[in-house]
Design goal:
The protein has three domains: about 120 residues, Alpha Horseshoe (Serine Threonine Protein Phosphatase 5, Tetratricopeptide repeat); about 140 residues, C8orf32 fold; about 80 residues, Tetratricopeptide repeat domain (Serine Threonine Protein Phosphatase 5, Tetratricopeptide repeat, Alpha Horseshoe), CATH 1.25.40.10. The N terminus is likely disordered. Helix 11 packs antiparallel against helix 12 and helix 14 packs antiparallel against helix 15. The chain starts with a strand and ends in a 6-residue tail after the last helix. It contains 17 helices and seven strands. The protein is globular, with a radius of gyration of 23 Å. With about 375 residues, the chain is of the alpha/beta class. Strands 1, 4, 5, 6 and 7 form a five-stranded mixed beta sheet that branches.
């Protein structure tokens, strides 16, 4: 029961249709239990800075006039000589922050693109992409991530010499092969903002900043009371802050709306266990095991334990089982590289370490794997 599960970035309900909104969500708040926020949570995530305006109107202005606003912006997004965007899941950024460092997670890059597009007078629609869920973890917090993209289109009645009236283009920051064929559902901009705030809450939690995490989660719910993931985050904040009654109340509300959610069941069971309600917690865990036989990172944890015991071939098999669930998870690829290295198979170790580097989602991890790969290259295959 040492884990907490958060849902971040683009994750909505696992159901195909939106779950009902909890009645009067403000009744779930307990402002008095937390210190005043250290940073404002009412930030304008779409605000452009001078550098963004200069980029649009001066740097790529001729391109926009030559190709049209829509095609010109898309080319700038795709051209590494212009925006040079990188995916970096370490921090959720506003439009201006993502533009300044030319990097961000999916929600940050969507917000930045939307801000640039609206400055050009383009229309923006947001979509939830129903792709395979991915998991990550930071310390004792598990994160389940999903994906959003956006559709850019011209204003009705807009015409120019290129005659691109009515044209629309989907912008996605994942490779097309990773999202091709998946269902999408339109979402409101307020939901996108709530996702941003929920991510900020999760990041504050990972840093141990519980007060800030509370205010971000509260702001997410206030901004879009139908975004249920923010309630889950609020429950995690309450539990870690020692407010077990409030945490249980939040999860009971969520369980009424998502009765088969493994995330909600797991987190509620953790709260009940901490509160000494062991029978109720055990009943939930038994139901959870029926729904989800192998929890997130089950095979990864077993593989890492086998590595520690020196059982390298067993570890390889377990790492491969973890990769069967998520072929791009960098920590499993790195573990596989370690196991092969210990067996003297340096070619396989290099292969999987390179894959770990290519699939890393933060600059920190990318640099770490790159350094290890440089050292490993000094070994020769015999």
């Amino acid at each position: 029961m040492r884990w907490s599960i958060l849902l971040v970035c683009a994750v909505l309900s696992a159901c195909a249709t939106p779950a009902s909104v909890p009645p009067r969500p403000e009744q779930l708040f307990n402002d008095a239990a937390f210190q005043a926020r250290s940073t404002p949570v009412d930030v304008d995530v779409f605000a452009l800075n001078d550098a963004m305006k200069h980029f649009l109107h001066d740097e790529i202005g001729p391109q926009l006039r030559r190709k049209g606003r829509l095609e010109g912006l898309i080319d700038a997004l795709q051209n590494r000589a212009q925006l040079k965007l990188e995916f970096d899941s370490a921090e959720t950024r506003t439009a201006a922050e993502a533009f300044n460092v030319r990097a961000g997670n999916c929600i940050s890059l969507v917000i930045m693109t939307a801000a640039l597009a609206r400055e050009l007078g383009l229309l923006v629609d947001y979509q939830r992409v129903y792709s395979e869920e991915t998991w990550s973890r930071d310390g004792t917090i598990l994160f389940r991530s999903g994906h959003v993209n956006l559709v850019l289109r011209q204003q009705p009645g807009y015409t120019n010499m290129l005659n691109d009236q009515g044209q629309q283009i989907t912008v996605d920051f994942l490779p097309q092969e990773d999202v091709r064929g998946y269902r999408t559902r339109p979402i409101e901009e307020r939901t996108v903002i709530a996702m941003f705030m929920n991510n900020r809450a999760a990041e504050s939690l990972a840093r141990g900043q519980l007060d800030d995490a509370y205010w971000w989660a509260r702001a997410a719910i206030s901004h879009d009371s139908g975004f249920l993931n923010a309630y889950n985050t609020l429950g995690v904040v309450y539990r870690r802050h020692g407010n077990l009654g409030e945490a249980e109340r939040v999860y009971r509300v969520l369980l009424e709306r998502e009765p088969d959610s493994p995330t909600v069941m797991f987190n509620l069971a953790a709260v009940l266990t901490t509160a000494g309600q062991l029978e109720a917690a055990q009943a939930l865990l038994q139901e959870l095991q029926r729904i989800e036989t192998y929890p997130p990172f089950y095979f990864l944890d077993q593989a890492q334990a086998a590595l520690t015991r020196g059982e390298f071939r067993a570890a390889i098999g377990l790492f491969k089982q973890e990769l069967a669930r998520d072929p791009s998870y960098h920590a499993a690829l790195f573990g596989l590289a370690v196991a092969y290295f210990q067996l003297g198979d340096f070619a396989s170790a290099r292969k999987h370490l390179n894959a770990a580097m290519e699939n890393s989602t933060t600059r920190r991890d990318h640099e770490l794997y790159a350094a290890k790969l440089d050292r490993l290259r000094s070994y020769h295959v015999h």
